[in-house]
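Researcher: Go.
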Amino acid sequence: MKRVLFSLLLALLLCGTSSAFTMAYVVPTTNEDGTPLTDLAAVVLYYRTSSAAAWQKIGEALPTAASIVVEPFLVGQFTTRARNSIGIESLDSNIVQTKRPNKIAITGVTK
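Model: Structure:
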């Protein structure tokens, strides 16, 4: 089975308050082998409190969406994965880290 290429740039768009933010992303269009992605089922958002902690699924969006609202505001690290129609998830996208409300950092891109 082909793996989905999901190496994207995530951005946090703060929503005017420190209680929530929007995680925006570019929806993937190709598999790792360069072929068109035709069976994207969802974009899944994961969270962890630190780089030593395990990822926890906290939400998912339809493949046509380009963002996920995170509420309440969580301090920690976030990544997204693409999931195809038979449940295979991509590798992690780049990691976005929130340090405290209204302060963010984008760290190294991973595949």
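Model: The CA atoms of residues 14 and 21 lie 5 Å apart.
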